[in-house]
Amino acid sequence: MNKAFAILFAAAGVCAAVETQVWEHSAASDFEKATLKKVALRNDGRLSLAPVLEEIYDASIPYLWAVVEDSRGKIYAAGGGPDAGAKVFEIDTAAASGQRAKTLATIEGLQVQALALDRQNRLYAATSPDGKVFRFIDGKTEVFYDPKAKYIWAMTFSSQGDLFVATGDKGEVHKVSSTGQGSVFYRTEQTHARSLALDSKGNLIVGTEPGGFIVSVTPSAEGFILYQSGKREITTLAAHKDGTIWAAAVGVKPAGGPPAPVGPAQGPTPAAAANATGGSVRSAPIPAPPPIPSMTPGISGGSEIYRIEADGFTRQMWASGTEFVYSIAFDSNGRAVLGTGNKGCLHTVESELLSVLLPCASPTQLTSLFAGSKGRVWAASGNTGRLFRLGPEVEKQGTIESEPLDAGFFAYWGRARSEGERLAGNVRIETRSGNHDAPPNGWSAYQELAAERIVSPAARFLQYRVTLQAPPQGSAPEVSLLELAHVQKNVAPVVEMVVPTPANYKFPSQSLSLTPSTNITLPGLSRTRHTPAITPTVESTALIMSYGKGFTGVRWLASDPNGDALSAKVEIRGVGERAWKLLKENVRDKGLGWDSTSFPDGDYVVRVTVSDSPDNTPQTALSASLESDPFVIDNTPPEIAALTASRSGGRIQASWRAIDARNALARAEYSLNGSDWTVVEPTTRMLDSRQHEFTLAVEAPPGEATFAVRVEDAHDNQAIAKTVVR
Asked: What is 63-77 written as a DSSP string?
């Protein structure tokens, strides 16, 4: 890779701070939401110009199910659908666009499912349902063979000129001579024999449904299961010139179907064994299948592609959880080309690890592929029925247009670069920007880079368009990495709340031990009032504080629109004072506690100044401040005055007055001769002010007695007084 020609690109995401961020597109998943036009995407993320995909003919019917090319270069395609009938077309690719095709025949049946050519270039067409094989000879159409089957799914000729016909719904393969005489050659004991191919040894390879078996049948009709797929149906088989067989398996198996083995089957299994006399493969009974995929293209379950070696070893080469493989052919380089639905995409398989996504056709399914002459691959489609040519030439120009990339905030754009092969002069990068996520309305126009710098206006969203251009001579470029650099505009943080904590409680970091009886749990902070420009922040984590006499504190709710890390400076001043006194700075937590016993009693205010300096330079850092509501520091106990106690008729009559300078009284108790403290009510029956009168009559013990009272204010400050009663 020539890193001197690297291109900057982007994987959409939200920045965590005001620092240079880089979107990087280097994996296939990075380009999944991009729009690729005439560009191929390899599954390791490499982009290149795609083979030419050209529409040749629109048959104006719902489906084309089959396409073949004879030895003279004449193309035949066939299909059908409701209200269209079973049609066969003859296509001359050299003719003008409006004169390329003619309807060769409209024959009995709903649609033509399969085509085949014999050694004399005579065309055969199989219809479904109530399938028959028709032959076209000397301008006439004739019924060549009737297998008395509901469906005919596939046909292929042997080297001896015999025609093999795969049928459903009895799962039989028929063998038909050149004179049209035929009979059942092999019974799969499955509902459908779905696909056929001939291996290099002359064995017939049969794919079944719903068991998903791949069966090798000798010329003497002896069957041997090569592989049992985890999928329900082998939709297509293709013979490679190197002697391997490629197979596509699709769909979810019905409940109760046999499970797929981990590796290839080494011989007949109890569920499916060869029958030497009848030449049939017998399997355990399987429930009747739902409508078959070829008739209902929306079947789920995804696809798997297998390569079967000449010795029978089967290896998985490709898989998709969403795409449905209808057909396999081989391009001029011997690579397997897959025709899929339900997006009409083409793939090539280069190895077990590498595959390439080629351009997708506008129809829903690419139902049939055929490797023709001059390196061309013909592709037939459904929804609607059209014929396409793939390659062999490569496109001269293609583009990759990304989805809108979200910087998460208003941002400035930086340098762009790419990495890959043969990029110099062959790759052009353009960008456009906007402040909403649906271009192009309200966005800037595409502009090319200037000295590798993005010149689009600063905004929140950016989109790139990369154009690959084939050089006049030599190979086309390949891009393996695209990047875009950007930095968010720094915006000051927001301090939304500053809330004092309850008096006499410590933050966890100040606590040596936590005792459940002296802990409190504070709910998370949330700001309910907000301006439309600022999304309210919710601090949902509860805070556990432990008891600590004399401690007080504040906590705050702060956020940064850029996601910057924050530090705080906490200051305090008394109400009525002017100067702020520093409590602590560079606080990374969202709360601070301190020992308030060194502060005179009084009303105070705390100011919290939050800065984004941890993620910004001193020149660019910004801050914001907010003051708390006034709160009280009170470490002075209440005053107990006029405590008297005397005996009267066998009882002790007591009275006293309690006064607190700053807070309401919270509790009053008495104790006689050191007994447990007992709560006592004031004369008003409730503690709701800073001063209360108390009177009490209790049974008098014999002899001298000590009468004590204890009063506590709302800040847990206590006063105790006593008197002796004789």
From this structure: EEEEEEE-TTS-EEE
Domain span holding position 541:
494-633
> Token pair of 217, please?
């049948």
| pLDDT exceeds cutoff 60 at 4 | no
**Phi and psi (nearest 5°) for 28?**
-60, -35
Q: 45 in helix, strand or coil? A: coil
**CA–CA gap between residue 74 and residue 314 (Å, rounded):** 35
Of 421, 456, 488, the last residue of a domain is 488
Inter-residue contact 596 to 443 (CB < 8 Å): no
> In one letter, which amino acid is 660?
D
- Report pLDDT for 285: 33
Q: What is the dihedral of CA 158, 159, 160, 161, to 10 degrees?
A: 60
- Whether residue 533 has pLDDT greater than 50: no
Neighbours of 236 (CB within 10 A): 28
Torsion, CA 291, CA 292, CA 295, CA 300, rounded to 10: 90
Inform me whether the pLDDT recorded for 294 exceeds 90.
no
SS3 content of the chain, % helix, strand, coil (to 5): 5, 55, 45
- 723: which strand partners? 707
Backbone angles phi, psi at 615, to 5 degrees: -115, 15
**Domain identity same for 517 and 620:** yes
pLDDT score recorded for residue 484: 96
What residues does 639 pair with on adjacent strands?
A: 659
Can you tell me the distance from the alpha carbon of 347 to that of 50, in angstroms, rounded to the nearest whole number? 11
Closest-CA residue to 562 (of 487, 651, 660) = 487
Residue 139: predicted pLDDT: 84
What's the CATH code of the domain at 692? 2.60.40.650
- Provide the pLDDT for residue 17: 60
Q: Is there a domain that residue 510 lies in?
A: yes
349 vs 276, 317, 375, CA distance in Å?
Answer: 37, 7, 17
Q: Please enumerate in sequence order all residues whose Cβ is within 8 A of that of 520, keeping only pairs 6 or more positions apart, or say none.
A: 502, 505, 544, 545, 547
Give residue 341's pLDDT: 87
Average pLDDT of the residues in 329-356: 94
Query: For 22-40, what is the mean pLDDT?
Result: 93
Task: Tell me whether residue 127 is in a domain.
Answer: no
pLDDT in tens, 148-164: 999 999 999 999 999 99
Residue 619 lies in a domain: yes
Residues 6+ apart with CB under 8 A from 217: 173, 185, 186, 203, 204, 205, 206, 223, 224, 279
Summarize the confidence of residues 172-188 as an average pLDDT.
96
pLDDT 10s digits, 678-699? 999 999 999 999 999 999 999 9
User: What does pLDDT average to over the chain?
Assistant: 87
Single residue among 633, 657, 678 that ends a domain in this structure: 633
Instruction: Give dist(CA 663, CA 503) in Å, integer.
Output: 12
DSSP letter, residue 561: T
Q: Could you identify the residue written with the tokens 């939304």?
A: 496
Measured CA to CA in angstroms, residue 322 lies from 20, 341, 375, 652 at distances of: 37, 9, 29, 91
Among 518, 507, 503, residue whose Cα is nearest residue 634:
503
At position 184, the amino acid (one-letter code) is V
Percent pLDDT > 90 in the chain is 75
Co-location of 714 and 652 in the same domain: yes
Residue type, 44: D
Work out the pLDDT band at 96, boundaries 50, 70, 90. low
Residue 650 DSSP class: T
Residue 353's Cβ-side half-sphere holds a number of Cα atoms within 13 Å equal to: 2
Q: How far apart are CA 632 and CA 512, in angstroms?
A: 26
| 616 and 564 Cβ atoms separated by less than 8 Å | yes
pLDDT at 101 over 50: yes
